[in-house]
Amino acid sequence: MTPILNAPHGSREELYTTRHVQARTCIERCFGLLKTRWRCLLRDRVLHYHPNVASKITLACCVLHNISLHAHLPAPSDIPVTTVDDNDDSSTQTTQSTTTENRNELIRGRAMLNYLISRL
């Protein structure tokens, strides 16, 4: 389904387009929230599974997200993170930057896990 472009003002087509855009915006925000909390859903980390398995993983992420909301867990960007310092050697800066990002992601994941466990 696509919006109807250049719909006459006040017509049913304009109302449809307005509601279509509103619904799409809401869905895109939901996808963004899920991708922020569950990194496996990002484009770079494609789920390399059969569509049935991938849909179950996506559903599990949705359920876990709802549990997180119910437990009043902060969004991933709201969790305090301690960063790992890098060596300034330019030849290994890119590798270290990737390693630091991976470490920071691991630290954020552990912080979320610890926070969730403390809420039980």
UniProtKB/TrEMBL annotation:
This is DDE Tnp4 domain-containing protein. Keywords: Metal-binding. The keyword Metal-binding applies. Its cofactor is a divalent metal cation. One of its GO terms (molecular function) is metal ion binding. InterPro entries: HARBI1_dom. Residues 90-100 have a biased composition (Low complexity). It comes from Parnassius mnemosyne (clouded apollo). Residues 9-66 form the DDE Tnp4 domain. Residues 80-102 are annotated as: Disordered.
